[in-house]
């Protein structure tokens, strides 16, 4: 009460332009103690802030950030409208804190099918504000001061700061490219872990490994052998697996997404993370989930109940209806989970052709929204900046958006500080876009090629 009165008095005095009021307020505003919590030290920079702004200012075609510019499926948006305007006014109120009952129930049914095990919707599933909050809950709930967490590079960039905020130490291990000898285009499958190098990262300090398959940014879908290698090390060293599977349905060329939790000894130590944003092309809805054993999820619930507590009820209701539809159509041609990857594969192939045509060597992704391309042949296009230690891929991406109007993200942004300088010849494009957007990107690339050949 007193504080309120103080604030409004200050406001009043400022409005009156009173000198006395100003000095009183500015004395209040001055603080000499550090305001930033120590856990934020060194994690304040974020690549997206800079590149999203550049894309908004200069791009004609934005293939940078990972979201579709095509509509979410009608069955989903209709479910949302029904939930919003239908007769059940209780959908405008809080729902169950750990997940709206219809959503956790259908997710449990779905994952029972996928994992071949019985699941309790109330203890083996939790709904979060997108996969982002699911990740945050995992690190806060499972990682202690001094714990090491293995992260496979390149990685979705928030893993590193989230591990640090929990007091943990990230330990990085890169996927190493092995270009095919026959001159063919590289595939994301050609980026592999070195088994000895991976094994050397595990120790008694290792608490968890983060696995992201299908992987953002490369589009790599880890094979059964690769997952077996990781699972074997997790079991041997009693390590947890935080398995980010947000692109689980976006797998191409008949490849299969294998869930590491289904491998021997892994269910008890794995948290599976998913996202309705990627699953139903509705990234703005921010509905995510975790699936896993109660012995892990109960700690995630503690973080959730002491931070976010509830997720938007109507969005959860609509996603539940989306899953109910998909459960009925499971494996059938009408299923969205069958149709969406087919459409995205075609879009991937268009972009592969466009990029290959101008000499930006694409690495063909086996899954996800993303495609990484080799830009090493474009060094002469981009002016050198004297005395700058900015990596080439950052300079290239900035130059490209400013001069060609095409936005993409530098790959080194997905590496740790220690390794980023070894991966500066690549940029990441998002192909989850309308045909017209990809055509406009192709036009830019074709024009660029003509300019290059005529100069
Ligand atoms: N994990 C990965 C690998 C992602 O690419 C993303 C989104 N780009 C997320 C998690 C976050 O997903 P959401 O939008 O559901 O929070």
TrEMBL record:
Entry-linked PANTHER family: FI04487P, KYNURENINE--OXOGLUTARATE TRANSAMINASE 1
Keyword hit for Transferase: yes
Co-factor(s): pyridoxal 5'-phosphate
Gene Ontology biological-process annotations: kynurenine metabolic process
Keyword hit for GTP-binding: no
The name this protein goes by in its record: Kynurenine--oxoglutarate transaminase 1
A GO molecular-function annotation: kynurenine-oxoglutarate transaminase activity
Catalytic activity reported: L-kynurenine + 2-oxoglutarate = kynurenate + L-glutamate + H2O; 3-phenylpyruvate + L-glutamine = 2-oxoglutaramate + L-phenylalanine; an S-substituted L-cysteine + H2O = a thiol + pyruvate + NH4(+)
Keyword terms, alphabetized: Aminotransferase, Cytoplasm, Lyase, Pyridoxal phosphate, Transferase
Highest taxon, organism lineage: Eukaryota
Organism for this UniProt entry: Cyanoderma ruficeps
Family: Belongs to the class-I pyridoxal-phosphate-dependent aminotransferase family.
Pathway per the UniProt entry: Amino-acid degradation; L-kynurenine degradation; kynurenate from L-kynurenine: step 1/2
Listed EC numbers: 2.6.1.64, 2.6.1.7, 4.4.1.13
Localization (cell): Cytoplasm, Cytosol
InterPro entries: Aminotransferase_I/II_large, Kynurenine-oxoglutarate_AT, PyrdxlP-dep_Trfase, PyrdxlP-dep_Trfase_major, PyrdxlP-dep_Trfase_small
Residue ranges of domain Aminotransferase class I/classII large in the record: 60-441
GO CC terms: cytosol; mitochondrion
Subunit structure: Homodimer.
């Amino acid at each position: 009460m007193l504080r309120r009165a103080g604030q409004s008095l200050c406001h009043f005095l400022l409005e009156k332009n009173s000198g006395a009021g100003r000095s009183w307020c500015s004395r209040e505003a001055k603080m000499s103690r550090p305001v930033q919590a120590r856990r934020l030290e060194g994690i304040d920079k974020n690549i997206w802030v800079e590149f999203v702004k550049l894309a908004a200012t200069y791009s004609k075609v934005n293939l940078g950030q990972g979201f579709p510019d095509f509509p979410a499926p009608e069955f989903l948006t209709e479910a949302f409208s029904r939930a919003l305007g239908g007769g059940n006014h209780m959908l405008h109120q809080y729902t169950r804190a750990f997940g709206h009952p219809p959503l956790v129930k259908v997710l449990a049914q779905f994952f029972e099918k996928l994992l071949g095990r019985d699941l309790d919707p109330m203890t083996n599933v939790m709904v979060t504000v997108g996969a982002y909050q699911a990740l945050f809950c995992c690190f806060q709930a499972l990682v202690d001061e001094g714990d090491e967490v293995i992260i496979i590079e390149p990685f979705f960039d928030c893993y590193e700061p989230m591990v640090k905020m929990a007091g943990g130490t990230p330990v990085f291990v890169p996927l190493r490219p092995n270009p095919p000898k026959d001159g063919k285009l590289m595939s994301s499958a050609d980026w592999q872990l070195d088994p000895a190098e991976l094994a050397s990262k595990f120790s008694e300090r290792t608490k968890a490994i983060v696995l992201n398959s299908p992987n953002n940014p490369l589009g790599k879908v880890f094979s059964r052998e690769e997952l077996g290698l990781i699972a074997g090390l997790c079991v041997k060293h009693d390590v947890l697996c935080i398995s980010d599977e947000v692109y689980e349905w976006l797998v191409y060329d008949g490849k299969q997404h294998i869930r590491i939790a289904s491998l021997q000894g892994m269910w008890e130590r794995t948290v599976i993370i998913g996202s309705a944003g990627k699953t139903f092309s509705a990234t703005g809805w921010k509905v995510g989930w975790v699936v896993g054993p109660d012995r892990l999820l109960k700690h995630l619930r503690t973080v959730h109940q002491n931070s976010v507590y509830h997720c938007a009820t109507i969005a959860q209701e609509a996603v539940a209806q989306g899953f109910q539809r998909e459960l009925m159509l499971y494996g059938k041609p009408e299923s969205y989970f069958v149709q969406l990857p087919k459409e995205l594969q075609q879009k991937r192939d268009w972009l592969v052709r466009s990029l290959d045509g101008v000499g930006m060597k694409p690495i063909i992704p086996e899954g996800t929204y993303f495609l990484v391309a080799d830009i090493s042949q474009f060094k002469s296009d981009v002016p050198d900046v004297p005395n700058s230690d900015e990596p080439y891929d950052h300079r290239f991406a900035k130059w490209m958006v400013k001069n060609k109007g095409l936005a993409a993200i530098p790959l080194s942004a997905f590496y740790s500080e220690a390794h980023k300088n070894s991966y500066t010849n690549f940029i990441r494009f998002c192909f989850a876009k309308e045909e017209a957007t990809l055509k406009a990107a192709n036009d830019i690339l074709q024009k660029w090629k003509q300019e290059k050949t005529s100069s």
